[in-house]
Write a structure and sequence with these properties.
The structure holds two protein chains of two kinds.
Chain A: H1 15-46, H2 66-71, H3 78-109, H4 115-126, H5 131-143, H6 151-174, H7 179-186, H8 191-220, H9 223-228, H10 237-243, H11 254-284
Helix pairs in contact in A: 1-11, 3-6, 3-8, 3-10, 4-6, 6-8, 7-8, 8-11
Chain B: H1 27-59, H2 76-82, H3 87-119, H4 126-138, H5 141-151, H6 157-162, H7 172-199, H8 204-212, H9 217-245, H10 249-254, H11 264-274, H12 278-303
Classes of the chains: A mainly alpha, B mainly alpha.
Chain lengths: ~290, ~325
């Protein structure tokens, strides 16, 4: 957390300044409320028993773990979905980074013709509507018997996250201290050696940031997963949560859904709390330069 | 960005990509190394995105017959969508997609700008503030959809707070309002962060000088902040617009497209996977792709958004 000095630090504050300060803090509280209130409501609702969930109290009268037990109970089998999500998002992150790092190095550092074409291609694919590939891909995977498999989600996800990864990584690599590479080359390293021994260790923060963003993108993916999976055996959490069923069609298991939502979101919130600086630098790279 | 370096061609004699130790890297070798580093990405994108797109376009020229050989129908599937049998549902989806795009992007830009202006100050707890702003961005859209569906339940908190008894997902206007609210909540903070990054590169001295010259807060905003933050703002709006035009998760989970909330993406998925009409679905996805591509092209052309990062070297 920043401990930067507050800009208005004059000892004698006028009434006008006080009003400004109050306005400023009220604004901040409103922003925090806007961002966190729905999440708070999800957490509170998840702790209410099915009998009290519609009471709309801001604090659970009698906190119960019923919903959390139901999430991992036999009906929903959410632990399987969590495992599927971890496998898919983890594999996507690793594969996307391997392919992305080497491409970004070339884009940031090497001189070659058609560089702007390649950059444009990455940008174009990042704006791409996923539905445009869904149907042919589905038929292809169906022919191969790949429906309900991890690779049916991993392969499209890798290609969807790759442009994002290349974009962020290229931004990081461009900003790195490349004099060190030249120094290593003067000392007799080849380009490959200079990359592995000198630059890769320096690039770890940027790569790590990209890993977080790619992981979150893959973890949150819904459309591909919803189309490529048909049974809980391969469904990730995003699909499982949308398909939770209650006793009857008209009985939405809201409490259970909220509990599952909390289970899915809390790891992300922790990641965000720890790495907010990195995530923001990654998200905003490319837009502010 | 043009450089004298060359991409290797196949007929050139092969050499190892890396130069010998001590030798200064020759431009030709540099181009060759670049080629080998970039080709895995290009191959992946070609196979996973290029092939299905071409396949989808090709398939869109053939009829959706259950059996027998494919019957070539030219632009028949496109005609069905644009003015034929399915034109009503197509234009409804087209309109509602643009309606969602315009309303959410305008709301998110205004709210995001307001949030960014408040956060662009040094204050204690700024890190915590930024983390809380990231929470809506980090929550999966599927979870956000389920969460807001609960909030908008007839017996839920929204009706409770407003003192109303609206069946939000039961009517057209209220379904749209609910989806717009959920989307704005999810992405306005993200827009705020992008704008904030742009605000932070404006030096304090500029504001101080303007204040000395007697410019009030509004004048400073219109004449300094807005022009200087314009590049970041345009990129944020462009990214949001392209995202909103392919909106799928929220309406799919919220209403499953009922009550006139079927976006183009939902229509494509329903036609090609639900109704097993790969030809018509291919035409729809090609039209969707063209709409998004045109929107991006016009946006960049008319407003001059610079999306390609500048090279520093």
């Amino acid at each position: 957390m920043t401990t930067a000095p507050v800009r208005d630090s004059r000892p004698a504050m006028t009434a006008h300044r006080w009003a400004g300060q109050i306005q400023f803090w009220v604004g901040l509280v409103l922003i925090a409320f806007f961002c966190l209130a729905p999440f708070y409501w999800m957490a509170v609702s998840s702790l209410k028993s099915p009998e009290t969930i519609f009471d709309n109290r801001l604090l659970p009268q009698d906190p119960s773990a019923t919903n959390y037990l139901a999430v991992f109970g036999a009906d929903n089998d959410f632990s399987l979905a969590l495992r599927n999500s971890l496998i898919v998002a983890g594999s996507v992150t690793v594969l996307s980074l391997i392919v992305g790092v080497i491409a970004s190095y070339a884009l940031a550092r090497l001189k070659f013709r058609l560089k702007s074409v390649v950059l444009g291609l990455f940008l174009a694919t990042s704006m791409f509507p996923g539905v445009a590939i869904l149907s042919p891909m589905f038929q292809l995977f169906a022919d191969w018997g790949w429906i309900n498999t991890y690779q049916a989600m991993i392969i499209p996800d890798v290609s969807f996250t790759l442009p994002l990864g290349v974009w962020i990584l290229t931004g990081f690599f461009v900003a790195m201290p490349w004099e060190l590479e030249e120094a290593a080359r003067v000392d007799g390293c080849t380009a490959g050696e200079a990359f592995r021994k000198v630059l890769l260790p320096l690039a770890v923060p940027g790569v790590f940031t990209t890993a977080i963003l790619v992981f979150i993108a893959a973890w949150n993916e819904f459309m591909i997963a919803n189309s490529m999976t048909q049974t809980p055996s391969a469904q990730p959490v995003t699909v499982a949560i949308a398909k939770f069923t209650g006793v009857s069609q008209f009985d939405q298991p809201f409490g259970t859904q909220m509990a599952a939502g909390v289970v899915v979101t809390v790891p992300l919130v922790i990641i965000v709390l720890i790495f907010q600086r990195r995530i923001i630098s990654g998200l905003t790279s490319g837009s502010s330069r | 960005m043009t450089s004298p370096a060359l991409l290797p061609t196949r007929d050139r004699p092969r050499r190892t990509p890396a130069s010998r130790a001590g030798e200064k890297l020759h431009p030709v070798n540099e181009g060759r190394l670049a080629f080998w580093l970039i080709i895995p990405s290009i191959l992946l994108l070609t196979l996973v995105i290029g092939y299905p797109v071409v396949q989808g376009i090709w398939r869109s020229f053939f009829a959706d017959s259950i059996d027998g050989p494919l019957e070539f129908v030219g632009f028949g599937n496109y005609a069905q969508a644009l003015w034929g049998r399915y034109s009503k549902e197509f234009w409804a989806a087209f309109n509602v997609t643009w309606f969602f795009t315009i309303t959410t992007v305008v709301l998110e830009t205004l709210i995001g700008m307001a949030m960014a202006l408040f956060m662009n100050r040094a204050f204690r707890g700024r890190g915590l503030m930024r983390a809380s702003v990231l929470v809506p961005w980090a929550i999966p859209t599927a979870v956000a959809a389920v969460m807001w569906r609960w909030a908008f339940d007839p017996r839920g908190i929204v009706n409770h707070v407003l003192g109303t008894t609206i069946t939000w997902t039961g009517m057209e206007w209220s379904s749209k309002v609910a989806i717009i609210v959920a989307d704005t909540w999810k992405t306005a903070p993200f827009v705020a962060l992008l704008i904030l990054a742009g605000l932070q590169i404006i030096p304090d001295e500029v504001y101080e000088a303007a204040a000395m010259d007697g410019a009030g807060p509004w004048k400073r905003f219109w004449h300094i902040t807005l022009p200087m933050v314009r590049p970041s703002l345009l990129v944020a709006v462009l990214f949001r617009m392209l995202d909103a035009l392919r909106m799928y998760d929220l309406p799919a989970i919220f209403t499953n497209g009922a009550n006139d909330t079927t976006t183009l993406s939902i229509l494509v998925v329903r036609a090609s996977l639900g109704n097993l009409q790969p030809g018509y679905g291919g035409a729809l996805s090609t039209i969707t792709f063209a709409v998004i591509f045109l929107a991006a092209f016009l946006f960049v052309r008319l407003l001059g958004a610079n999306v390609v990062p500048k090279e520093r070297s």
